[in-house]
Amino acid sequence: MKIARKWVVSVIVFAGVLSILSACGSKQTGSTSTPSSTSDMSSSTMMNKGEMAPEFSLRDLKGNTVGLSDVQGKKVYVKYWASWCSICLAGLEDLNNLAGQDNDFHVITIVTPDYKGEKSSQAFTQWFDQQPYDNITVLLDEKGVWAKEFGVRAYPSSFYIGSDGILVKSQPGHASNEQIMKSLQEIL
Questions:
Q1: pTM for this entry
Q2: Phi-psi region at 117: left, alpha or beta (left = phi > 0; alpha = psi -120 to 50)
Q3: N or C: which terminal CB in the chain sees fewer CB atoms within 10 Å?
């Protein structure tokens, strides 16, 4: 009898705790202003679902400053890669071809000098200048400042930004040109 009573009390306590936790979860979700304001914005001014992409402004290999605002109103494919990454290097020729095409999106690549094993800016620039990739825009994210903002966990990593500046999709690993184009066709 005492064992049965303990069991019933345990079940009631467990159900009560579960009920409280469920209520807290739903209340917190409903009262958070960020998703609510994001969905309000997406229905009126935003065309894509997601968060705003980090508003980076980085130097290219020639010393020019290039920012996300420079391609405002256009879809953007951002690829983080590294010179020591064999998968990254194997995909550069295809990416160069994609960047040289007349598409409705802009291709930007970013490397992280002095971060996660990448060469210094000077050494990387000297190395890349010897490569046959004339169509690729390479930006230098010194010490991975923006890589951290984007949440880069692996090289290569792809980020798809809509014409409204929304980071719609991120994907670690290699993406073929067909996958990149398909993903960009699915966003506005």
A1: 0.73
A2: left
A3: N
The candidate with the shortest Cα–Cα distance to 159, out of 83, 61, 68, is: 68
pLDDT in tens, 51-94: 889 999 999 999 999 999 998 899 999 999 999 999 999 999 99
Kindly report the three-state secondary structure assignment for every residue of the chain: CHHHHHHHHHHHHHHHHHHHHHHHHHHHHHHCHHHHHHHHHHHHCCCCCCEECCCCEEEECCCCEEEHHHHCCCEEEEEECCCCCHHHHHHHHHHHHHHHCCCCEEEEEEECCCCCCCCCHHHHHHHHHCCCCCCCCEEECHHHHHHHHHCCCCCCEEEEECCCCEEEEEEECCCCHHHHHHHHHCCC
pLDDT tens digit string along 1-19? 555 555 444 544 443 333 3
Query: How far is 37 from 102, CA to CA, in rounded Å?
Result: 35
Residues constituting the chain: 188
